[in-house]
Each structure stands twice: as C-alpha cells, then as structure tokens.
C-alpha cells in the first residue's frame, strides 16, 4: 500500500463515513475511509457496483455530507467550506448535466464563458472538445435529441472545459463505445500530463484503471482493500504459466517438477498444467528445458501476466467482471 505521508495533499480524508437509511435498514455505503491524494496524481477508484465509489465522490464534491469523519479537498473542509471546495474542483457526475433544449455546442460555449474565457477562446475550446468526443456533426442539435451515449460524451466534454486543478469524473466511460472510450482516455491523459490536473475517477473497467491511472484504489463494501500502482498490485500475484502436453501422464510428471519451484501454485487438468508463480516469465524457459528430462515433453506453453481482475479475485474471492454490470449498450443505443 502507498500510504506515505504527503506535505499538502489535494485530498485528505479521515474516517470518512456515510450511511444511508432505506426501509429502516442502515446501509454503510462508505466505512471509515483514510485517504491522501497528492497534487498531480491520476487516481482510479475501482470496485463493483455498490462498492461506495460514487458516494465517496459525492462527499468529496460536497454534494452530500459525511455521516462522520472528515475530508479536506484542496485544503478546504467539505462541510464547513463547501463553496471554497466547489470553486476549486470540476465534477462530472453519473447523470446528464447538460440542459435539454440548448444545442450541444452552445452548452460547451456557455460553460467556458462562465469560467471566464473570451467568446473566441470559448468557441475554439468548444470545437476542440466536440471533435475530441466525436460530436461535431451533432453539435447543432438540441441536447434532448441526442442518444444516451452522445449526451454522456457531451457531459464529459463540458466537465473538461475549465481545466480546474482537481477534477472528479464519476464513471466517465460508462455508456461510451470502445472508440469513444479511447478518445476520453486520451483527453483525460492530456489534461493530466499537459496541465498537471489532479484527476480522480471511478470506473469498473479494469482495463481503463490499468491503462490510465497512476494509482488504483480498490474499493469493496465501502472500504479500501488495496491501494497502489497497477503494476505493483499485479506483481503480488505472479504470472500464470500454462502448459499443454500430449498425454495426461506427462502433465502429472511435469506437475511434480513444477512443485519444486519455490512459491509455485500448481494445478493439473487432464493434459493441461498451470503454474502460478512470481517471475513466471523468467522461469518458463528453464521449465520447458527441464521437462523432457523428467519424461514430459511440452506441446504448448503460454505465460500470462496477472490482471487487476486477478487482484480483485485474490482479495475478495469474487471476480470484478462478474460483479459489475455494464450499461454500455443500453446507453449508447438509447437514442432519444
Ligand atoms: N441515496 C441513497 N439512498 C440509499 N442508499 C444509497 C443511496 N446512494 C447510494 N446508496 C447505497 O450505497 C451503496 C454504495 O453506493 P454507491 O453508488 O456509492 O456505489 P458505487 O461503487 O458508486 O456503485 P456504482 O458503480 O454502481 O455506481 C449501495 O448499496 C447503494 O445502494
């Protein structure tokens, strides 16, 4: 876990907790979060549906108050200094922020003007964002006639207008097709790299957290269960060496040899053998060379590095892919 103290974190939470009451039952949506995020970080909150990611973001953006605990955002308390927090951040929530009768282009221009840009700078910025999110040809339509996916893209574009020092994005990719998801990632990356914007986003796309975020905070049942860079989270698991043999007896002989590797987890399934071990990529060639000598010539070998889903599975016993439902097709296809 990366829990090194930092001088002036952009975000600092202490025991941050939020309960909801539904039908006389208490839901502990966020349970005692202690988190520090430094200026310039790009952090992904990764977790299944209902893990507490949005509730955390909503507290950090002052939309809802914590039940207990505290949070400071850009040096301001989220309860006592709500206005100051709001002035310092950008936020793209899960809902559609865009108004309904305005044209998409005008929405972006008005937002840019509200942040103090000149009319011509606002227009230039609007065209850039429309192009980046593949919205240019829809820019003159009233927002109410856009599809769900197009509106989502407009929401995110509006959120990126102002370039605040700290930007929160709540599931920005949900509802986008793969091409637009890539466009979005590119925009987020540029904002982070070119302007040094600190970015906190939530996602249940493992690949997105892996590819984009410098730090992945894995949240489950309202608690942080892992917090590190994606490579370090994965390195705790080791690689998976998958071997195939012409005969099941070869696989058994090979398993006996593989079990002698320190820390290896070995399993045999018919003619297939899998070995999970740290530095599997380096060990694989030695194993292949050794196996004919123990009467187990190899027919097939593949080495696969661990994914963030393997990390989640190891931590919780559940796959994030199974626990999360995607609303992509629903949104992208839902023309109004
Ligand atoms: N306003 C509310 N009233 C009652 N329960 C709520 C409310 N908001 C959230 N919850 C509950 O709190 C828990 C955490 O929800 P939250 O939306 O923070 O999860 P999440 O990780 O963002 O999930 P998702 O990926 O689906 O957005 C869930 O059990 C949810 O049903």
From TrEMBL:
Transmembrane segments: none annotated. One of its GO terms (molecular function) is ATP binding. It is a peripheral membrane protein. It holds the Pfam family ABC_tran. The keyword Amino-acid biosynthesis does not apply. InterPro entries: AAA+_ATPase, ABC_transporter-like_ATP-bd, ABC_transporter-like_CS, ABC_transporter_ATP-binding, P-loop_NTPase. It comes from the Bacteria. This is ATP-binding cassette domain-containing protein.
